[in-house]
Structure to design on (430 residues):
């Protein structure tokens, strides 16, 4: 799904998913699996006095039918740990996969095949060497007729700014009842390691960020393992996707204060330039919040002449445009408002700067660089752009459909910028 380039037109607003990167740990997808035996402790070692009994329960249930191709092998263990999981298809071919870090299930490396039979064998062991082995067989469902697509905004050939969230947008609304299942199939790793959480900003958009901006030079690797995942309303995910985001080694940050009508530009936390701006006039105010550069257009056209509901229609050529919201707010060159920049707001919601300053910013920034705007008459609406940073960390955590690990609460320190007027209501979940 590519960025929408139609200037000055609002795109439909796209709500919160979780956790620390759901890392997988290798667990026998390629070695020979053990032969089937009953789920009874072996006599290899006598249980230690007072030790918790070694037990194992496996899902799906034996002979389960119509299972999604995203099916994981669930493992509930007491008194021991999983040693191996071996999954084979009806021809005896092995399926690659790995255990979740929390040991709750084994995840296939690729979606299973539609309408096929599989067998899973799990072996667990306790500290004394006693083992339990259990197998289950199941059949996957046929290919679904209704699917939900997903767009992942991360491309390995690009370098992103430090505020680049992992953004996934869906072609159909994901109801609240399906969001936890979707989140559990979104895997993120960062190098160097940094905590992070998925959070829904609307029924059509989920984003991942940490309590602070990414460290410079971070590599973000994502697997959106969504093919066959139940997405609600009888729909299933259409495909698995992988993405890589390389965060720049240079931190760029822009800060705009409506009170002064000045933009401060920071490079690696050092102030390098201050320049005048003109923001949106009171009838079309700019949005306060920490926004993210979503797209960059050297030249474009802002055209609202075919919008019958707009009483202030216009068509104008624009240079050095950097998109901040789906609703049509940009940083861009506005030579016609230079006399107002630094003094009064005259725009339709954009951040107006001079031609020279627009070129300077365009050459400096990357997609994913943050700009914080404060003191305007409204706050940016959730999902009107990549708005992950426009709320505090604690507020962001509330958007998760999964429980938050205690170690992740209270990590964020920077409060979200506020508007001078009452914020607009959040987008209602579909």
């Amino acid at each position: 799904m590519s960025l929408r380039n139609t200037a000055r037109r609002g795109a439909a607003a796209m709500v919160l998913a979780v956790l620390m990167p759901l890392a997988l740990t290798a667990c026998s997808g390629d070695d020979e699996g053990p032969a089937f035996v009953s789920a009874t402790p072996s006599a290899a070692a006598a249980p230690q006095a007072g030790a918790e009994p070694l037990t194992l329960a496996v899902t799906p249930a034996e002979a389960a039918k119509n299972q999604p191709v995203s099916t994981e092998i669930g493992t509930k263990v007491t008194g021991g740990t999983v040693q191996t999981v071996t999954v084979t298809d009806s021809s005896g071919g092995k399926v690659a996969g790995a255990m979740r870090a929390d040991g709750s299930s084994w995840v296939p490396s690729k979606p299973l095949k539609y309408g096929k039979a599989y067998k899973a064998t799990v072996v667990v062991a306790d500290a004394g060497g006693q083992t339990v082995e259990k197998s289950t067989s199941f059949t996957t469902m046929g290919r679904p007729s209704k699917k939900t697509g997903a767009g992942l905004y991360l491309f390995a050939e690009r370098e992103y700014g430090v505020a680049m969230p992992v953004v996934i947008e869906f072609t159909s609304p994901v109801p609240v009842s399906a969001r936890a299942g979707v989140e559990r199939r979104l895997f993120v790793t960062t190098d160097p390691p940094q905590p992070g959480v998925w959070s829904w900003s609307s029924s059509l958009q989920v984003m991942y960020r940490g309590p602070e901006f990414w460290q410079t030079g971070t590599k973000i690797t994502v697997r959106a393992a969504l093919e066959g995942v139940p997405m609600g309303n009888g729909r299933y995910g259409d495909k698995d996707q992988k993405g890589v985001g390389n965060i720049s080694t240079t931190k760029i940050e822009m800060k705009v204060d409506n009170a002064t009508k000045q933009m401060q530009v920071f490079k690696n936390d050092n102030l390098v330039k201050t320049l005048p701006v003109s923001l949106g006039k009171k009838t079309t105010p700019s949005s306060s919040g920490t926004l993210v550069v979503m797209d960059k257009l050297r030249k474009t056209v802002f055209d609202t002449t075919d919008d019958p509901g707009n009483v202030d229609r216009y068509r104008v050529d624009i240079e050095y445009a950097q998109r901040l919201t789906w609703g049509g707010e940009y940083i861009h060159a506005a030579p016609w408002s230079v006399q107002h920049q630094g003094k009064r707001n005259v725009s339709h919601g954009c951040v107006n700067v001079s031609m020279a300053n627009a070129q300077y910013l365009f050459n400096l920034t990357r997609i994913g660089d943050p700009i914080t705007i404060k003191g305007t008459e409204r706050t940016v609406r959730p999902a009107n752009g990549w708005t992950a940073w426009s709320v505090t960390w604690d507020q962001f955590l509330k958007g998760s459909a999964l429980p938050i690990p205690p170690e992740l609460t209270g990590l964020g320190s920077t409060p979200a910028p506020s508007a001078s007027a009452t914020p607009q209501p959040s987008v209602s979940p579909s």
